[in-house]
């Protein structure tokens, strides 16, 4: 008996823009209004706003939308990691349904940090099997990381970004002025992702952070040096992602800092922000690289000192829990199809990959990392006593 077989082969062209747009909410800046009305068929636009952003900019945003006669509904979402759930995704989908969002017109806009942008991105990818949207990052981490990525995602059953999709919005509008109202800790948090990019790709970016980290954090990356650091981080991410947007190649240098941190972060979600966990993972991986002979002692000290200068932690009990670290690596290996593909710094600004890292190596790196953290804590106490 003969059988038939059909093969469908097609290609999907993907193009999306990240556009720097200073003073986005100024009444004399029509950019956001143009985005909201350029494809309009007169429907209500859903504008999803991080609740923390709404407290600071809600009245200004309402004035702006009224000035440009944009029919809209505002939906506030909580932007903390614990709220990065399918529940919030369904809340966005319900609102899209209620305002009658069309398949390709009157696209929603998401304004906020990484959690809100990821939630809205996933909702947009699911609603009517996918609609366009626009994102406006308002934190340093979302500006240099989420704004570039094609991925969306939410946490599930204690795992970070376990449910998600590849669905980049056509446009991201970047206004660094939002950073002026971000807390110092959140600035440092975003610095963790910039720190990662300097270590694995851009020695000039690392030098900016090494030489001026405290000043960059103090002025919230509003200086020319801060603008350069942001631009270099975004450009580096684009360069790394453009030829591997769908992650068909599972050896990704931008996964540096993301091998152990996802599970540690979720187990200590009340204590660790994402960029902090990434920075800790970067340092643990630096100790592994030192053990392999890639980095010398002085280079590891420079990496740790740069993290400290950015206000990032250099130790946390979660990174001394060897069982947890091994569970984290095992889960990461599933994500990398059974391989470690562990990015480590070969030299500052360049990465290589390991696939045979042992539990003993990880335990040794964690022990040395803990000793460094304890030493830095004792130094802080000593200096405080002397003052």
Strand content: 5-15%
How many beta-strand runs?
A: 10
* Low-confidence runs: none
Question: From the alpha-carbon coordinates, what is the Rg to the nearest angstrom?
Answer: 22 Å
Class of secondary structure makeup: alpha/beta
Percent helix:
40-55%
Could you explain how this protein is built, in words?
With 387 residues, the chain is of the alpha/beta class. The chain has 13 helices and 10 strands. Strand 2, helix 2 (51-67) and strand 3 form a beta-alpha-beta unit.
Quick gist of this model?
The chain has 387 residues and is of the alpha/beta class. The protein has 13 helices and ten strands. The longest helix has 28 residues, at 359-386.
Give me some keywords for this one:
13 helices, alpha/beta, 387 residues, single chain, six-stranded parallel β-sheet, two-stranded antiparallel sheet, 49% helix
Question: How would you summarize the topology of this molecule?
Answer:
Elements: E1 17-20, H1 31-37, E2 45-50, H2 51-67, E3 72-77, H3 86-99, E4 109-112, H4 114-126, E5 134-137, H5 140-146, E6 151-156, E7 159-166, E8 171-174, H6 184-200, H7 203-218, H8 224-241, H9 261-267, H10 274-291, H11 297-309, H12 322-335, E9 342-347, E10 350-354, H13 359-386
Parallel strand pairs: 1-8, 2-3, 2-4, 4-5, 5-8
Antiparallel strand pairs: 6-7, 9-10
Helix pairs in contact: 3-4, 5-6, 5-8, 6-7, 6-8, 6-10, 7-8, 7-11, 9-10, 9-12, 10-11, 10-13
């Amino acid at each position: 008996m003969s059988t038939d077989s059909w093969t469908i082969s097609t290609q999907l062209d993907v193009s999306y823009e990240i556009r720097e747009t200073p003073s986005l909410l100024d009444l004399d800046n029509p950019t956001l209004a143009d985005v909201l009305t350029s494809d309009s068929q007169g429907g209500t636009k859903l504008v999803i706003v991080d609740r923390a952003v709404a407290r600071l900019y809600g009245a200004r945003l309402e004035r702006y939308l009224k000035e440009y006669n944009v029919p809209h509904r505002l939906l506030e979402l909580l932007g903390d990691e614990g709220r990065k759930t399918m529940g919030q995704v369904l809340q966005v989908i319900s609102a899209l349904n209620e305002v009658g969002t069309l398949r390709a017109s009157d696209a929603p806009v998401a304004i906020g940090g990484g959690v809100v942008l990821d939630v809205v991105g996933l909702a947009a990818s699911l609603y009517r099997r996918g609609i366009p949207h626009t994102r406006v990052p308002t934190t340093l981490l979302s500006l240099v990381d989420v704004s570039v990525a094609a991925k969306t995602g939410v946490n599930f059953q204690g795992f970070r970004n376990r449910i998600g999709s590849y669905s980049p919005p056509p446009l991201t509008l970047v206004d660094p002025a939002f950073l002026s109202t971000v807390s110092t800790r959140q600035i440092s948090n975003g610095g963790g992702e910039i720190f990662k990019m300097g270590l694995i790709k851009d020695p000039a970016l690392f030098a900016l952070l090494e030489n001026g980290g405290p000043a960059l954090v103090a002025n919230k990356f509003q200086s020319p040096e801060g603008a350069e650091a942001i631009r270099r981080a975004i450009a580096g991410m684009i360069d790394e992602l453009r030829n591997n947007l769908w992650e068909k190649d599972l050896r990704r240098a931008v996964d540096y800092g993301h091998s152990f941190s996802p599970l540690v972060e979720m187990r200590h979600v009340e204590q660790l922000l994402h960029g902090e966990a990434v920075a800790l993972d970067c340092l643990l991986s630096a100790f592994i690289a030192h053990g392999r002979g890639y980095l010398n002692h002085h280079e590891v000290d420079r990496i740790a000192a740069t993290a400290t200068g950015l206000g990032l932690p250099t130790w946390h009990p979660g990174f001394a829990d060897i069982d947890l670290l091994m569970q984290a690596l095992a889960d990461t290996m599933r994500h990398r199809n059974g391989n470690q593909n562990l990015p480590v710094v070969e030299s500052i600004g360049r990465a290589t990959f390991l696939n045979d890292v042992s539990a003993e190596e990880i335990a040794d790196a964690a022990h040395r990392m803990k000793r460094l953290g304890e030493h830095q804590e004792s130094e802080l106490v000593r200096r405080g006593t002397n003052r």
